[in-house]
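Propose amino acids for all 187 sites.
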């Protein structure tokens, strides 16, 4: 919940997501998990300052933060409960890797998706490329990876990066309706 930073992830979030997902997974009352971002963005990826610049001289801490992110993304991917990514806006870089491991992804029509790392002279690494390469055709994934262009929610739907897109004012209602449907099934 850092809307002023487009919900960019930082080391603290990675720690909190590990704890939250561990708790939600073990809670028998929780049947479905919905992830979204505060404000107008889902997630702008890892915070360039807090995740990278602030840790440039701290390689052990950087590795620890990277590992924490990998851990919670893997917890999400293997979660025994259905997971829904409610993409309310910008979904970039590492944020894209998060929606790729959720079971469902529903996007607001206004959402934009991309892997902008190449625009900063860096090849997108880790889950940022792995997720799209698993969901998209090789050429569509390479288009995002090598051009750094953003795509609309409609294009993301056409490419099957998301299940569907809906008007932003209906996003959470659609996700809750899907969650309610899933809760009717045998856990």
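Proposal:
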């Amino acid at each position: 919940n850092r809307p002023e930073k487009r919900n960019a992830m930082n080391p603290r979030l990675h720690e909190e997501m590990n704890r939250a997902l561990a708790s939600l997974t073990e809670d028998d009352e929780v049947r479905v998990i919905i992830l979204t971002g505060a404000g107008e963005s889902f997630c702008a990826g890892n915070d360039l300052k807090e995740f990278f610049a602030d840790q440039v001289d701290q390689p052990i801490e950087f590795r620890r933060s990277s590992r924490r992110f990998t851990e919670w993304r893997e917890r999400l991917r293997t979660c025994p409960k259905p997971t829904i990514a409610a993409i309310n806006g910008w979904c970039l870089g590492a944020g894209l890797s998060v929606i790729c491991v959720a079971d469902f992804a529903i996007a607001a029509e206004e959402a934009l998706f991309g892997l902008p790392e190449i625009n900063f002279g860096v090849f997108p690494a880790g889950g940022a490329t792995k997720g799209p390469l698993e969901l998209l055709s090789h050429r569509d994934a390479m288009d995002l990876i090598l051009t750094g262009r953003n795509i609309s929610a409609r294009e993301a739907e056409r490419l099957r990066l998301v299940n569907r897109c809906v008007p932003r004012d209906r996003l959470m209602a659609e996700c809750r309706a899907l969650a309610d449907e899933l809760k009717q099934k045998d856990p």
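The CA atoms of residues 22 and 127 lie 20 Å apart. The longest helix spans residues 59-77.
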